[in-house]
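Quick one, probably user error.
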């Protein structure tokens, strides 16, 4: 997998291009315990991405294996993330559900992709006591209610 594709798989589906606008904070109040910690990791990623804080995305949000892969790019992880974040218009996300199994978790996140609602399934791993984004499993564009096709 190329470095560009790796960062695209991690960031673009989560913070997809749609109508430009300011992001609101991801709400984590519906979750408790480990699920809330997972949702909080997604919230931190959104906050860091919205602030174009690539160093924090690499250092605090992404799993070490992803940082290692992105670090092979020219300019390293920070530059790869910066480049991708500059291409994103809408950072707004909602954590729909979280499933935790030991040191692995899935977070189903709703965002806007090409002007349409989309559900992205993020995988997370617990590293040194903290949840980190490790990848994506699925991406589903949700048609608007009443839309034909």
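Nope, works fine. Designed sequence:
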């Amino acid at each position: 997998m190329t470095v560009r594709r790796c960062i695209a798989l991690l960031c673009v589906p989560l913070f997809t291009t749609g109508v430009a606008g300011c992001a609101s904070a991801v709400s984590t109040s519906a979750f408790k315990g480990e699920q809330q910690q997972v949702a909080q990791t997604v919230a931190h990623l959104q906050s860091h991405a919205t602030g174009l804080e690539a160093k924090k995305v690499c250092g605090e949000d992404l799993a070490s294996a992803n940082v290692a892969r992105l670090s092979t790019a020219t300019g390293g992880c920070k530059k790869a993330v910066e480049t991708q974040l500059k291409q994103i218009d809408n950072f707004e996300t909602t954590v729909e559900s979280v499933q935790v199994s030991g040191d692995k978790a899935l977070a189903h996140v709703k965002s806007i992709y090409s002007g349409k609602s989309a559900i992205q399934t993020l995988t997370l791993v617990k590293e040194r006591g903290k949840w980190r984004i490790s990848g994506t499993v699925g991406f589903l564009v949700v048609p608007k209610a009443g839309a034909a096709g």
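The chain has one domain: 3-141.
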